[in-house]
Design a protein that fits this description.
Layout (H helix, E strand, L loop, with lengths): L1 H21 L4 E3 L7 E4 L6 E5 L4 E2 L10 E6 L2 E6 L3 E2 L15 E3 L6 H12 L13 H14 L8 E2 H14 L11 H4 L18 H14 L5 H29 L1 H29 L4 H28 L13
Antiparallel strand pairs: 1-4, 1-7, 2-3, 5-6, 8-9
Helix pairs in contact: 2-4, 6-7, 6-9, 7-8, 7-9, 8-9
């Protein structure tokens, strides 16, 4: 026991001697990502100065503590944390922020730039016409896109990942699917198609699935620009309209009378709901024509999607999985 206590005392004395020997020596500022180091007042701990990365400092022997070194910089004296000081002068900025590998940026020219501009114009992020010249307006449009998807672009440059995502959203709005769309397990596991595997993942849905995808990405990043909103919702509406007609034609082959009745019912429900959607849109957006159009499209897309899914189940799902009649109020 006495030996253990003696060893502990010796270890503490060694640390104290090391700390004392450090005082009076030259130390250097070493901060993460090369940031400046805060110099804090000895009276109220407020920040009184900023010391650049790599600056040489000589801590005061008398005023330094175990956790903070008392130093003087730029005519100001105060405390800095010991854990941001090193004995050896740093040779370079630690952990530098990676420089983006842009495939297009301010000053770029060519067909690729024009294609990018065309997509940004179609989606409502860029005004005007595509000229193939990447300037301040194109950079601002890229920043708007980044803001919408929750990203960050300080100078509006375009990396390959940026371009892939812009193209993926644009292709979806045009009615094509891209593998570059962000994955989302919550959506992919929902039962929004006629068929699914044992794990509950939708499979073999064709245009149904693409329509659901278009509707999903309308909400994925929050409200898109009106132009993109109308493209996505229109795509959803058109796909579901085509799918519903195809399903009714399929039903007609096996049960003509039922198919006729369902087609009449489908058209009657739409005729009844359309005036209500228009009235609601005018009340909600009395002075915004485009917003009214987006609102009506959204109501139509959601109704068609619900109707189409229920009709699909009615035609193809097993009895225990059928959701019921595609009649909605």
């Amino acid at each position: 026991m006495k030996r253990l206590l003696l060893r502990l005392v010796c270890a503490v004395l060694a640390l104290c001697l090391l700390a004392v020997s450090a005082l009076g020596d030259t130390w250097y500022v070493y901060t993460k990502n090369g940031k400046t180091l805060n110099l804090r007042s000895e009276y109220d701990n407020s920040v009184i100065g900023y010391i650049p990365f790599g600056t040489a400092l000589v801590p005061d022997e008398e005023k330094s503590t175990e956790t903070s070194a008392y130093v003087t910089y730029g005519g100001q004296s105060g405390y800095v944390r010991w854990n941001y000081l090193v004995r050896t002068r740093p040779t370079k900025n630690p952990d530098p922020t990676p420089v983006p590998e842009y495939i297009m940026k301010n000053g770029s020219k060519g067909d690729d730039v024009q294609e990018l501009q065309d997509m940004l114009i179609d989606m409502g992020f860029l005004d005007g016409s595509a000229d193939g010249k990447f300037g301040s307006k194109t950079a601002a449009a890229v920043k708007k896109f980044h803001t919408w998807v929750g990203g960050n672009s300080k100078d509006g440059g375009v990396t390959q990942a940026d371009y892939d995502l812009i193209e993926a959203i644009w292709l979806l709005a045009m009615g094509e699917y891209s593998d570059n769309l962000p994955e989302n397990d919550t959506w992919s596991s929902t039962r929004t198609c006629c068929y699914w595997d044992e794990d509950g993942r939708a499979i073999g849905c064709g245009s149904h699935w693409l329509a659901v995808t278009a509707r999903y990405y309308y909400d994925y990043y929050g409200d898109p620009p009106d132009a993109l909103a109308m493209l996505l919702l229109n795509r959803c509406v058109l796909l579901w309209q085509d799918s519903i007609v195809e399903m009714l034609e399929e039903l007609e082959e096996s049960n003509a009378n039922s198919a006729v009745e369902m087609r009449i019912d489908y058209e009657a429900q739409l005729m009844e709901l359309e005036p209500q959607w228009e009235a609601d849109a005018k009340a909600k957006y009395p002075n915004k024509k485009t917003s009214r159009s987006v609102y009506i499209l959204l109501q139509r897309a959601d109704w068609l999607q619900e109707y189409g899914i229920r009709l699909c189940f009615q035609l193809h799902a097993t009895e225990e999985d059928t959701l019921g009649s595609p009649v909605m109020g």
